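Worked Example 4.2. Consider the chain below.
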Amino acid sequence: MMDRIKLVSALVLVAAGITGFYYYADQALLYRVLGLLAIMGVAIALAVSTQLGMTTVNYGRGAVLEARKSVWPTRRETTQTTLIVIVMVIIIGLLLWLFDTLLLWAVELLTRKGS
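Applying the procedure from the previous section yields the following structure tokens:
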């Protein structure tokens, strides 16, 4: 129950921060942005103190760890893969053009529009 109260309070803070940002439009933009960032920081800290917030933070940390384990291709591998894709697109394009031409020829032959 306390977690729900914290999450609702965080949402209310976010709404109040956004409302205040636009309500005080006559003030300097710097002060409005700093105030909004401060309120958002408090709201995030409040949300992270809940069980759902901690679960989300742990999930994010796990995602970063998994991303660090990724092996990225070298420049040579990327170039080779790109060239293979370009060649295959050209080959498939030519095959589709040939197939389309043959179908056009067959339809013209069947409908006698070619002569």
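The mean pLDDT is 92. Residues 37 and 105 are 67 Å apart (CA to CA). Compare this with Example 4.1 before moving on.
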